[in-house]
Every structure is written in C-alpha cells, then in structure tokens.
Design brief:
Immunoglobulin-like
C-alpha cells in the first residue's frame, strides 16, 4: 500500500482530531507544566503508515513564503517525538487526561511532553503594518502527523496529513518582589559654580503589565540655570542571542511633565507612567508576549534568566526607565536633555492568576481536526 493524498475521490478517509485542554503552560523557574493532549486516531490501518506527535520549540526569523525558494528561516531549539500508532507511548494519566478522554471517546490515545526548564518563553516580534504571514520570534508547536518515520528529513510530509497547534510557555511574576531601584546624579555646568542634583527611585523592582508605575523625583537646583522640563521615557531592549549578536532598543513610552525649577530652589514629587502596547501598535520589531493567531497580547515580559547558556534563551527582553532634565541657561543656551539623566531598571510581568493550582487549571477545550486520505 502507499499514501496518495492527492487521490481524494478514491481514498479511504481517516480522521485525526487533536484535543487541547489549554494553550498556556507556566514556567515558574523551578519547573514547567506538563503538556498533555489527545489525538483521536481514526482508521489508519495500513502498515505503511504510523502516527506521530511532536513538540518543537523553534525560532522563526523569516516568512514561510520564502521556503518555496529553498530558504528556511526557522531554527529548531528543541524537539521531541512520540509514536502514537502503532502505540508505544503510555504516559501516566492525569485528571486533564481523563477529562479529555471522556470528550474524545473511543480511540483516544493520550500523550504528554515535559518541557525542559532551560527553554525560552514564547516571544513574538511585532510585524509592520504591511507584513504578512507568521510573526518572527520563539514559538512552541504541537504537531500530529502521518509518516513512515518520525523524523526522516528526506520524507515529505503533506500539510494535509498534519494537524498543528501553537502553545505558549509563559512566566508569571514571583510572589515576592524586591526593593525598588534608586539612582542619582550631580551635574555641573559651565559658568556655574554649583551643580544640579537629580534623584529618582521606585517602590519596588517589578510591576505588572497595565499597572501604574510611580516614580519619585527629587531635584535640588543649586546652579544659576533653570530646569525647564522633566521627560520620562521607557525603552525596551531586545537581545536576539540565538543566531547573531542582534541587539536593539525601541522606546515604548515618552512623557513630559511641565516642571520649572528655578536657580536655588528644589522640587520633589511622584509622577506615574504606564507603558502599554496600545500606544505602540505600529512599531515593527517590538517584542511581544507570544500570541495565538490574531488574539491580542501585550508588551513582552521581562526575561528571568537562569544559570543556562545564554544562546539557548533565544530572545532576551529587558526594560529601563530614563529620567531626563532639560536645563536652560540665561538665554537661548540650552543643555541637551541627555546631559542630566538617570536610569532605573524595570521588570514587567504578569501576576500569577489567583486561585489557580498548577496542573489543575480549568479546561478550555480547543479542537483541531484534519482528514487524512489513505489509499490502500
């Protein structure tokens, strides 16, 4: 027998249905939730065919459209396979397995994967307004497919014989946050005997996406120049360490506060900022938390590093806050904003959902069905 997926009229039709209990799997630094799903294996009776399931973590840095030109812009970071038919993989059943088995009915074949803790979290790079196809970035994909061998690079697997689902590996903020950072600078100017003192601080080192970030600013202007304005900006730095030393920074927030501090006077106040994706929808290359199809997402969470090789992390994301003072002289003489600047590190993450217990998350069922043509 042989497989002829292009002879639909004369084929025996088999069905593979991939049941997915959830799409997000949590990395809490010490371990990662187990991936467990169910394909329902239909009438694949030919000894020529076997059914395999694969979980892959990959970095995508180009369009799938370029594959037809012999160019592959995808690099596998980690990959694992199980054979489901003929059956040779029997995982220990969890409550999630039992729930899905009742839904799938007869013929359900359970499987599970353990995600290594040293793999990166899901991150996508925001496409430009005219970009099409899948976003570049790190993603995790579950694939069920019909083949002769589970990982033969010379065997051509038809898309009609494959069911795919993207999942996400996510991190939540730790339950304990650290003390807030503090920075200060004393800046002297030409033709002024005394300096300008600037101090900025935050209450904690980690904030949640969408949370207002209060920044305490203190200015002691002992110079003979005037502080005309305060500008606060937030920069996102993306470090793509997998295939090159590609590191770039993009602003995600810029806000000015009309503050005037005259010579010999002081200023002290707390100002608030909230960086968000809604203000940065058009910025190509901005790092976002991994998205599923067209679902909305947010700015990428800060990368929490482990003691692993940096190259395995794929994409590293970090943030910093800049507090700039515009200082004017006794006329048109203006000192650049960058001349009086302090920087504060910032961590942005999601809070751990309340009332959620690891491995006991509510089931939101996602189903992907393909019909596989098998010619006997």
């Amino acid at each position: 027998s042989s497989r002829c997926s292009d002879v639909l009229t004369f084929s025996s039709v088999s069905q593979l249905t991939l049941y997915l209990g959830k799409r997000d799997y949590v990395d809490d630094i010490s371990k990662v939730e187990q991936v467990g799903k169910f394909p329902t294996v239909g009438l694949v009776q030919s000894s020529y065919h076997s059914v395999f399931v694969q979980l892959a973590c990959a970095f995508r840095y180009g369009s799938d459209d370029l594959d037809v030109m012999g160019l592959c812009f995808r690099k596998d970071i980690w990959i694992n396979h199980h054979q489901l038919h003929p059956e040779n993989h029997k995982p220990a059943l969890s409550p999630m397995h039992e729930t899905l088995m009742k839904k799938a009915g007869d013929g359900a074949v359970p499987f599970s994967f353990d995600i290594p803790i040293n793999l990166p979290c899901s991150v996508s790079l925001q496409p430009g307004p005219d970009d099409k196809g899948k976003s570049c970035g790190v993603d995790f994909e579950v694939k069920v497919y019909l083949a002769m061998d589970k990982a033969n690079p010379d065997e051509k697997i038809s898309k009609k014989d494959t069911a795919r689902l993207i999942i996400r590996k996510v991190q939540f903020a730790p339950s304990q946050v650290g003390a807030g950072p503090k920075a200060e600078i004393c800046k002297s100017f030409m033709m002024s005997d005394k300096p300008v003192h600037l101090e900025a601080s935050m209450e904690k080192d980690l904030y949640f996406h969408g949370e207002s970030i209060p920044i305490k600013v203190k200015i002691n202007n002992e110079s003979n120049k005037s502080v005309k304005n305060i500008k606060i900006s937030v920069d996102q730095t993306t470090d793509i360490v997998l295939y090159s030393a590609d590191k770039y920074t993009k602003p995600v927030l810029s806000k000015e506060f009309g503050v005037s501090v005259e010579p010999g006077s002081t200023y002290e106040n707390t100002v608030a900022i909230t960086p968000s994706l809604s203000d940065n929808k058009e910025k190509r290359g901005l790092s976002l938390d991994g998205r599923l199809k067209d679902e909305d997402t947010n700015l990428a969470s800060s990368t929490m590093l482990r003691n692993v090789e940096k190259e395995v992390m794929g994409i590293l994301v970090s943030y910093k806050i800049k507090i700039n003072l515009m200082v004017a002289g006794g006329g048109a003489l203006v000192c650049s904003c960058s001349d009086v600047t302090v920087e504060l590190p910032l961590q942005l993450m999601h809070p751990k959902p309340t009332g959620t217990i690891l491995y006991r998350r509510p089931v939101t069922l996602t189903v992907y069905t393909i019909y596989i043509s098998v010619f006997f």
